[in-house]
Every structure is written in structure tokens, then in C-alpha cells.
């Protein structure tokens, strides 16, 4: 599978672009489902309680990630910039959250391993999107 696009030819979407797009669509669906089953609906004995600020922050990040995935799927160069901005925003917001509260006690998605995996994944997507942009696949 060639990464570069010849002038005048229809662009071919690399398989990895499809996988990234499907991943972010599924993550968005999972996020929407989790909003519908929020800890407030699960009762006072829920392990982790989130404020409206936490939900707003998560919603902004999910919308940005889905937008970047759509741009990447459409083979737009702006996807690389948006993924890079998302990585920076995610690092800043996670740092603020950890400085404010630390890692939560009890069951949670926010563990040192999950944070590292998240940063590595979005970092890899950034590198890949910049690779595609440099090779002329993104326009």
C-alpha cells in the first residue's frame, strides 16, 4: 500500500486511517452511552463521582477527537494539526486534574497505566497523521 498519491488520481485511504476512524466512532458511542448511564443515575454508591466540569471537559475532548478522526478519514491535512492540539490539551487537562485530585481511589479508568496508554495512542496517531501529511496523502 503506497502512502503517496499521484497527481490526478483518486486518493486511497490507508487501512490504518479506517481503523482510527472506526475506533473514534466507537469511543464516541461508548461516551454517549456512559453519559446516559452516568454515576448520578447509578445512585449514591457509585465508586467515582464526576462534576459537570468533568463531563464538559470529556465532552469537548471526545468531540475534538471525533472531528480530527473525520478530518483524517477525509484525508485533510488539518487532521494532523488538530490531533496535535488534542494531545497538548489532553496533557494539560490531565496534569491539572492530577494536580488537583491525584489518581482516584477505587475502580476508575484514570490510572497511571491508562494515562500512559492514552498519551501513547494519541501520540502515535499524531505521528501517523504527520507522516501521511508529509507523504502527500493528506491535502
Q: How would you characterize this protein structure?
A:
Helix content is 69%, strand content 0%. The chain is mainly alpha-helical. The chain has one domain. The radius of gyration is 17 Å and the shape is elongated. The mean pLDDT is 85.
Globally, the shape reads: elongated
Number of domains: 1
**Structural class by sheet pairing and helices:** mainly alpha
Radius of gyration: 17 Å
pLDDT averaged residue by residue: 85
What is the helix/strand order? HHHHH
DSSP strand count:
0
Oligomer: single chain
**Terminal residue distance:** 18 Å
Helix percent band: 55-70%
Instruction: Note the total helix count.
Output: 5
Instruction: Report on the biggest sheet.
Output: none
The percentage of residues in β strands lies in: under 5%
Low-confidence stretches: none
Amino acid at each position: 500500500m503506497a502512502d503517496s498519491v499521484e497527481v490526478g488520481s483518486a486518493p486511497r485511504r490507508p487501512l490504518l486511517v479506517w481503523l482510527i476512524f472506526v475506533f473514534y466512532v466507537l469511543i464516541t458511542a461508548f461516551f454517549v452511552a456512559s453519559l446516559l448511564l452516568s454515576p448520578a443515575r447509578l445512585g449514591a454508591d457509585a465508586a467515582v463521582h464526576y462534576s459537570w466540569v468533568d463531563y464538559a471537559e470529556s465532552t469537548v475532548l471526545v468531540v475534538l477527537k471525533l472531528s480530527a478522526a473525520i478530518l483524517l478519514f477525509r484525508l485533510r491535512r488539518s487532521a494532523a494539526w488538530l490531533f496535535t492540539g488534542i494531545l497538548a490539551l489532553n496533557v494539560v487537562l490531565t496534569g491539572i486534574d492530577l494536580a488537583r485530585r491525584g489518581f482516584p481511589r477505587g475502580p476508575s479508568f484514570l490510572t497511571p497505566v491508562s494515562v500512559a496508554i492514552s498519551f501513547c495512542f494519541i501520540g502515535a496517531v499524531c505521528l501517523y497523521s504527520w507522516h501521511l501529511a508529509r507523504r502527500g496523502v493528506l491535502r
